[in-house]
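question for whoever is on the cluster today: can someone run the full assembly for these? two chains, 710 residues total. i dont have access anymore since they changed the login thing
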Amino acid sequence: MRPPGTADAQRVLLVDDHQLLADSLALALEAEGFVVTVADLTDREQLIASVRNDPPDLVLLDLDLGGTIGDGATLVRPFCEAGARVLVVSGSADGYWLGTAVEQGAAGVLTKSGPFEPLLANVMSAARGDPVMSDADRHRLINDVRQARERLRHLHAPLQRLTEREQEVLRALGHGKSVSQIAEAWFVSEATVRSQVRGVLTKLGVSSQLEAVAYALRAGWLTNPDDRRGGRRALQ
Amino acid sequence: MLPVRDPAPFQQLAFASQAVAVAMFLGAGSLFLSRWRIDGDPRTALAAVALLVYGAGAIVPRYLALVLGVDVAPSIIDEIGTSAVVGVVLVISVRTVVSADYESINLARLLGAGLTLTAATWFLLLALESQAPQALAAGASMQSAVNLVLALVWTVLGALAWRRRHAQPWMGRIGVLVGGLAVVRLLDATAGSQADAPAHLGAMLLWATVACVTAYCALVTLHEVVEDEQAQLQTVVDALSEANVGVARRDAWREELSHDAINALAGLRAALTTLQRYEHRLDAEAVRRLRGAVIAEVVHLEHLVERSTRDYPEPFELAEVICNVVETRRATGLQVRLGPVQGRVLGRPGDLSTVLQNLLINAARHAPGSRVDIRVIAVPGRVGVQVADRGPGIPAELADWVFERGFRGPGSGSTGLGLFVARELMREQGGELELVSTAGGCVFLATLPSADPDGVRSDDRTGSGMVDARETRR
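^ ran it for u. tokens below:
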């Protein structure tokens, strides 16, 4: 154990929006002789810039960072490029998300939901530069994510073949609008909307409006095209 | 009547009309059968059978006579056919029009009764023909008599149906059509047995018209039934889509709750382990802060558990909540000035009440003796409640911290918790709590999504609620 403040003390940056965990971890690591900074999460660009100017030895990164920064996985690459090792410490068990972070260059993932002592021990060994995750585990995680992404892409491909108007029609149907309501709202004839609906059915390879809506929901396309949960469903 | 007339074209036209009428009645019967397949209503089946029998009956007896080799005058056969068919149709129609309990109708029995009646009439006429041919040879009076009787029967049936038109709209239609049949028979009665009489042609033309109208009515009702069916299907589709969206929302909500709980537990575990392991190495201030934060976190966790049992936001009147809170606080001696309150919002009335109580208690604590102003203001798509005290306010550099949990607060652990909980409560119902101004007293603004009564923006509302929930995830 090194006394605090020595020249070769490992520097750790904590990026977590949960204050109690971040502060406890910081106190524990400081007591273990690390130099710890708890990141200010008000400005994403500023955070990246500060890491770039003075890269710490290790970044402990939470993935779910709330409103101002959002998805922590997007920080992995800039941090790695700045020369820091990134260790994901997350409460999420979302394999797709964790895998994405590893794919982006994270050295490993640790879960918050478990005893604190092993978490602390793992963090310390990572800060000293020891490997946190075997290469096989990393590859498996990355592989799973790529396969899930492939399945999702496959599911989304027919939806992307829809014309803009057909996508709008499908969205409206998904929100419970009828053909006549759509026609009325867009000032077009019902026949026009019907032909667009036929286009949707043909391209998705389904036989009814309900089936088309179910397909779009299943693909996670209707609620939010960028929904992470689509990826998780594909992974399961 | 035309001055010079050639009987042949009249007769041909009458025959043609008859053919059209038969075809139309058969067509109407088929349409009613299709409708019955969709609505499963026994009345529809009865109407279909009556029309098919009526249409077929106009040709089948003559065909039967031909097949059986019975050598009788065509006009007599017509009368036999007519009475036969009318027998069946009458029994069915009377049952349909008079009966109120359609479920108990037994179609097979009705058909049997009608056919028996028909057979009896037919044999009676055949017997009359063999025993007293001279009675029928004259023909005219006999045929007129049959037609008159039929006209009378149709009239009675039509009137019966017409009287019940208020109970069932389609009864009115049947009444008119059956009335038309009565006129047809009446016209035919004046023609006697003369197949070339203009009255007969008129009767047949009218008959064809009635048949066409019947077919048209059948088509219209079939269309109505199909539209109804489609509307019902659409309702099911709508309900399913809505259920889907509801499930997605509930899932997202659950996920957030469990995510928050996992984080809170992780924080507690980390803090308690750190305290246990490093207490002797940490300075007293750090230990005190950490302990305060642990207590705050336990409160937060408690709040999460409580939250999971709560309902979704619902539309409610702002006035109900605000007036109650203001009255309670006034009772404790707080001076409150309340501006005009109107607006419907989407949220949880109980939680808004807690938040306002919190703000007023806060004002009473930090600005003792000062008057508090409450105003309702409209923000695009939302409604805000502004609570302003006239106390010393908060130093600007601390304004950012007022909503943080006790840990980061300026003083001891006792401050800040109320405002933190208040903001959480607002955010989880899709609203927000902000400190708008700190100069010359604190001005807090609590906003909630507006509940548009017209429902036009209901989709947008759902959407923005989801976005808010996502943004406020911790």
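summary bc i know u wont read the tokens: The radius of gyration of chain B is 43 Å. Chain B touches chain A through 43 residues (CB under 8 Å).
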